[in-house]
Amino acid sequence: AQSVTQLDSQVPVFEEAPVELRCNYSSSVSVYLFWYVQYPNQGLQLLLKYLSGSTLVKGINGFEAEFNKSQTSFHLRKPSVHISDTAEYFCAVIYTGTASKLTFGTGTRLQVTL
Amino acid sequence: ETGVTQSPTHLIKTRGQQVTLRCSSQSGHNTVSWYQQALGQGPQFIFQYYREEENGRGNFPPRFSGLQFPNYSSELNVNALELDDSALYLCASSLGGVSPYNEQFFGPGTRLTVL
């Protein structure tokens, strides 16, 4: 079955500290990988995506992620978080042959405090 | 450039009723996808429309149906509402069909509560 796992439902972190949000996916086929952010009472905003090429991708707001095919992972990182990064983060995958159907993980709540 | 808009923002219905949710795609986008996001969960794919034709469906029963109009706006209809249908319904539009290379832009969602 095609699935996306975000093991951490909540990640508390102090402002200016680094953070990593983990994402693993099940796959025996090629994939396209995405991270979205959702602020309260809003829709989803694309942070970054991996489609092909370099396995290290950079996105908006200082976030980056690395595609690791052998570990079927696509972890999201930021070297120094800000209070405004507090939000829900979703990892999503498009599996080859499923057109553009996004399969989402259950989300990680990033809580940044002073 | 106008983004993806959805209406209404909130809606309360009772079990057994029917509901229609609406989505206006971003200008020029010919593909729209609908997702259901239950509380505390990630969005789940309902179906996708490309140039007015259904082009893929997730694991949802037939009482979930949709339409895409010539101007590429879209409707999601749900019949015989159940309590578990309570969720945030998101639509996303993209340009150029069903390639994963075409970014999907999400609307703010419609919050449906079924009592």
Question: How would you characterize this protein structure?
Answer:
Chain A has 114 residues and is mostly beta strands. Chain A has strands at 4-5, 10-14, 19-21, 24-25, 31-38, 44-50, 56-58, 64-68, 73-78, 87-95, 103-104, 108-113. In chain A, strand 10 (87-95) and strand 11 (103-104) form a beta hairpin. Chain A is globular and about 45 Å long. The mean pLDDT of chain A is 93. By secondary structure, chain B is mainly β. Chain B has no helices and eleven strands. The radius of gyration of chain B is 13 Å and the shape is globular. At the A-B interface, strand 6, strand 10 and strand 11 of A face strand 4, strand 5 and strand 9 of B.
The gist of it:
Chain A is an all-beta fold and 114 residues long. Chain A has no helices and 12 strands. Chain B has strands spanning 5-7, 10-13, 19-24, 31-37, 44-50, 53-57, 64-68, 74-78, 87-94, 105-106, 110-114.
Strand content bin of chain A? over 45%
Rounded to an integer in angstroms, the radius of gyration calculated over CA atoms of chain A is: 14 Å
Shape of chain B: globular
Class from secondary-structure proportions of chain B: mainly beta
- How many strands, which pairing sense, and closed or not: the largest β-sheet of chain A? 6 strands, mixed
Overall mean pLDDT of chain A stands at 93
Q: Count the strands of chain A? A: 12
Class from secondary-structure proportions of chain A:
mainly beta
Q: Helical residue percent of chain A?
A: under 10%
Task: Give the biggest beta sheet of chain B.
Answer: 7 strands, mixed
Report the end-to-end length of chain A measured between terminal Cα atoms: 41 Å
Number of helices in the DSSP assignment of chain A: 0
